[in-house]
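Example 3.
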Amino acid sequence: MVIIFKQNTEKSEIEKIKRAIEGDGCETTVSHGKDYIVVGVIGDTSKVNIERIQANENVDKVVRVQEPYKKAGRHFHPQDTIVDVDGSKIGGKRLAVIAGPCSVESEEQIVEIAKRVKQSGANFLRGGAFKPRTSPYSFQGLELEGLDLLKLAKKETGLPIVTEIMSADFIDRFVEDVDVIQVGARNMQNFTLLKELGKTRKTILLKRGLSATIEEFLMAAEYIMSEGNENVVLCERGIRTFETYTRNTLDLSVVPAIKKLSHLPVIIDPSHAAGMWWMVEPLAKAAVAVGADGLMIEVHNDPANAKSDGQQSIKPDKFDEIMKKVRAIAEIEGKQV
Amino acid sequence: MVIIFKQNTEKSEIEKIKRAIEGDGCETTVSHGKDYIVVGVIGDTSKVNIERIQANENVDKVVRVQEPYKKAGRHFHPQDTIVDVDGSKIGGKRLAVIAGPCSVESEEQIVEIAKRVKQSGANFLRGGAFKPRTSPYSFQGLELEGLDLLKLAKKETGLPIVTEIMSADFIDRFVEDVDVIQVGARNMQNFTLLKELGKTRKTILLKRGLSATIEEFLMAAEYIMSEGNENVVLCERGIRTFETYTRNTLDLSVVPAIKKLSHLPVIIDPSHAAGMWWMVEPLAKAAVAVGADGLMIEVHNDPANAKSDGQQSIKPDKFDEIMKKVRAIAEIEGKQV
Amino acid sequence: MVIIFKQNTEKSEIEKIKRAIEGDGCETTVSHGKDYIVVGVIGDTSKVNIERIQANENVDKVVRVQEPYKKAGRHFHPQDTIVDVDGSKIGGKRLAVIAGPCSVESEEQIVEIAKRVKQSGANFLRGGAFKPRTSPYSFQGLELEGLDLLKLAKKETGLPIVTEIMSADFIDRFVEDVDVIQVGARNMQNFTLLKELGKTRKTILLKRGLSATIEEFLMAAEYIMSEGNENVVLCERGIRTFETYTRNTLDLSVVPAIKKLSHLPVIIDPSHAAGMWWMVEPLAKAAVAVGADGLMIEVHNDPANAKSDGQQSIKPDKFDEIMKKVRAIAEIEGKQV
Amino acid sequence: MVIIFKQNTEKSEIEKIKRAIEGDGCETTVSHGKDYIVVGVIGDTSKVNIERIQANENVDKVVRVQEPYKKAGRHFHPQDTIVDVDGSKIGGKRLAVIAGPCSVESEEQIVEIAKRVKQSGANFLRGGAFKPRTSPYSFQGLELEGLDLLKLAKKETGLPIVTEIMSADFIDRFVEDVDVIQVGARNMQNFTLLKELGKTRKTILLKRGLSATIEEFLMAAEYIMSEGNENVVLCERGIRTFETYTRNTLDLSVVPAIKKLSHLPVIIDPSHAAGMWWMVEPLAKAAVAVGADGLMIEVHNDPANAKSDGQQSIKPDKFDEIMKKVRAIAEIEGKQV
């Protein structure tokens, strides 16, 4: 961390801040320029209270050099993390493909879709049981019954289950029944939930918040990891921008950015990003080409009657077609599906 | 709701959608243009599954005419709501002024600040006990001990307490001890929490999410109200934009917008919006001039040593000065402090 | 400027950059920390090529301490600038009120509106002759004929004319006929045009670009001023954000921000910001309360038949009403209309 | 176009708007619902003044069905446009690769880079002669001398020249010397310039504005095309969002969107989007996978001493490496480099 003080700051003011920083276990060095005074801070600065320093009227700028995350950062963990979900890997040389409907609607629906996506090469089944919906009057999911149906589909196909948790209330059921627990974009900074999930050892699929910076995204992962759970997979699903043609704007540059900053696997959800089924194919291909560790795709056997997200769901035949193209690009990237 | 079908849509496709809509209890009218076919939907469209209609390939556009919220909307509730917190009103002719520190830090701190802000004219005391922080390594609040200290400060000053809840875990304690329960920006779409709060009869101060549209903001209020709790106060605290000079961009146009769309009171938090103490005064004055029902301001007796948000906190003397100016503008607006 | 090098940077690399900076006329100081090396740069850094330094693989971060603008900045020009337009002032104790139609449409229209807004207290007349329209098929303005009509209205009322220039082609006519030359939001970074206007001594009303940061806004002013024309007035007219309820999001915090960073006057255009006539009043009041030096308001005698911007134009009677309220707030702020 | 009137609108008001629309050459149909009245507008609605309709207090919403662009739209021009630049094609089965330095700096520099990028497979040479820079104190380009140097490089390599025009002043020189005239992001809505370029028959490379919607982007193309020049190539180069880790956020979904809405070719500039050289490779690959018709990449033989954009420029060896990977993905997409 580097603190830039204004030119005429009195020594006593600088001393006060130096002492506070040293009290947090860091060392400082001071150098006097003509126009400003620079204080360098050395050591683990993650505990230094930046806001308190910024609150000082003599401080012009505070610049962090170290990233604020430790467990999620690549600095102390240079090798890529490969998360192991009962043998199915996310990260590394195998492309993770998570497919399935937005919502679990019935046994017939989820089992049928699970079989179809497995045939096409998916290695995880998604399906929402608890659904965060903008309107309280929209379908809110089958809830616990949905979890039961997902288990049936897993029994039929062997595909591990990915499904979203909306609060810590049912965390024991999720730990028991679910293979990968998803935290949705709207809960990315539900810190209470993140801490509880950090106490489990389940794989957590953490979706980027609608307007979360990359740093905030990694800090949300840090919340989970700081409690001891290092099985975190990041998922970009589009950010909110001024453009309204697409539901959200898919930020694919997040993949190389996270690969540089972090060791965690990162996957892409083109369905939620675009919000239109016909964009899923090109965006899925781009995601693989940009280096993503996996894809999360909404597939429905009857989109026109889906209880949610019909407009962005593709049919199983289309999914099969996309998988063929994705496979070809993955091979160029040295990855297998 | 108006549905615009593409020119060559077959009658059977239109019939299918008409039947689905009529199944949701609405009526439809069809008119054929040269370039497109328009289906008007009449009745309570809040239960119609728009996504399902959009998923139909023949549909060009779906346009809502009615707003999707009912309880939060002004349509069925034309008069302004005035929320009553044990005699202290929010909404109407009295400007609500909520002031206090970002975090409760000690008895001495919270009581001292409470007394000072009361003297200057604040009618509610704010103070964070549970703190949502970007970093897991930052101060997370005194938690339940913080609630106890707030109660002491209330005992000393009589000021009703406003404090943030971060999950439904401690909802009983909050209902017992707190006068206004705040839902922070990061939890604006924590629907599980909203529903639980909807089951209480406490006043809920709902902060706008960082990237929530006005419609999503009102739909979050609708979540609370649809469970039976109509004591909702909305709070704008800045939205996330490309501009980084300010912490967030305060969107004051939200006040006239919400006054048009909804009957709920709306207040402004200039401290979080700007993120810099010296901007609080001009933004507070603008908030009153634009028609806000109240202000929420961070006041600290020692900002340079505050455990959080020091850079945006003002000192009690400055708060006193601001209140004088705010009072003058409030009078022009026909309001009292 | 402070440059932070990575820990293991070789001395020769640092020397190379030091020499380049010293070649640009600045001095440097180096201090070695354990985790990084800090090079402080002292002197006029506005000519240092930051991108070149950032291109060096050993450089971790480059932090500017000085602002990149000089003539527009308050640092070397501490007193507020008051622009004098043939006796009418912008800045200081008098609130500038610029009112008139979006487009000049006819002699009758512009003269009638000019008379009405003058009566209500406007001290400048606006009216578009050259209109930047999103569609080539929309009304593009009366062009040079529009300038003639504005001159007629000025002759009738004495109000100085504010109108937009769209390219340097007609700059001589504008210098001859117009009192304040407006640069629209879309041309804020039309650097060729800015430089040409910098060579005149006319007052330039520079509108903030739709997605321009405050720094970019001031740098656009610097373009004009660096050519010798210091008569620049800044105008905030809403920025583009994710919110679509309003046409743009009015960023009122820009007023205190610019007052801190710059000595130039700054005014607010609530009409373009909101895009809805009924929001003009509350936003105009807020603009005065936040400390703006003036207002720019679209007034039309027949909005429902206006050739452009009818939805955001107010009628003369409404303008008169708004002026009364604005005047009351201006007085509290120590300003006169 | 569909106009939704409020429930109690008087017939005379609706008649007034009907007559205005019919005066613009369109037909109307009226249907009365219980809650609202819908007026459908049929015909070429591009000349209908929407703002005037929205200004009517009885109008609730105006919904466009037709897109507002005609020449740029796919509706009246279903086949993909392939632009022919003296035999070099943009669009169709050949991937256009435009490479070269940000700024032309010297004969040696531009000729050397031109040779290197040609060897690696580039089929166009880029190089800035007139440079739009945020600061008036930054290098502004060699201007006309830069054009001369580009011609030399073309003579040596045969590569057609792509370079940016900043105002209509030098349009004759550009038409004479340049093969593809680039309009930069900041000038995307410099309508005067667009119209002048529309009068030439040169290929225009139109970059998307920093905060331009897809519709505004296509309307800017329409400005050029409406004057008669149909040789337009669109270029996405990143949009402005809240994320600051990357210089801009590359919006790759624009490629399938434009392919659906328009027949014009669309290429991607990963260098300006990311602003960091190490992101160029993954984003270039993603651009080809998503279906772009070409790439525009900044290549410099000495980025650490480049006069501009050094931090995002790659070296010729790296460009060669990227081209190999891009070629492999292009082949899967059925395209050649």
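Chain D has a mean pLDDT of 94. The domain at 2-63 of chain D is CATH 3.30.70.1140 (Alpha-Beta Plaits).
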